[in-house]
Amino acid sequence: MSEESKQYIPLLTGEDNLPTWKSVVRRSFIMNGLWEYLVTDIPEPADPEKLKEWTRDRVQASLILQKSLLNPHIERMLVNNGLDMEEDDPKAIWDLVNQVVPTVTKASMSSLLYEFTRLDRKSFATLFDYINKVQEINKRLKSTGCDLQENVIIAITLWGLKSTYPNDHSFWIRAFETGTLKWAELMKELGRIALDEQIRPTMVSLPAKNTGNPQGSGQNNDKDGGKMKRCTKPGCKF
């Protein structure tokens, strides 16, 4: 197979580009007379000259396939399912890819959906962490071919916020049910809340320094000269 032909075989990344990858491999191998090595078990010929050609073609076909399987996720997936990266039988490689990649991708999709529907804000240190996890799972779901509708993503995301933000959650649900809550708007609002939560701890006032003044000097006193009692009511700053 020529160098020009090799460069058109894309790197397999998962089930999302598996159809494209298979199509390009098929056409490239047909064009170079190697397709039969992927779809049939060609027996080892007895003739020495034909044996050399058979061996060369098998190794070449295997090498081309393996170079397109160097995505770490795909390589690990195949090795875990029994692939020897020095395999010289291209049909064995081809069959394993077509057997394993769709199956593992579907299992991964199921696992991601399970994780997504059980996310809870209270399990994360910050709201930013929760947002990042939601976005990460959605990105990974898309890579498996599972592109959820926006309203489904919003509904699942809101469910994970209910226990921590009950009042906001009620407002968001009303907006969601009337069709006025969009994903971009929700992300903007959550980002604002997350930033507010991040800034709030830094706004705690520092205690006053002891200047060594005589007793009663610089202190708050009531009319009788006694110390004013500190207010302990929620929200009181005195």
TrEMBL record:
It holds the Pfam family Retrotran_gag_2. Residues 208-220 have a biased composition (Polar residues). Residues 205-238 are annotated as: Disordered. This is DUF4219 domain-containing protein.
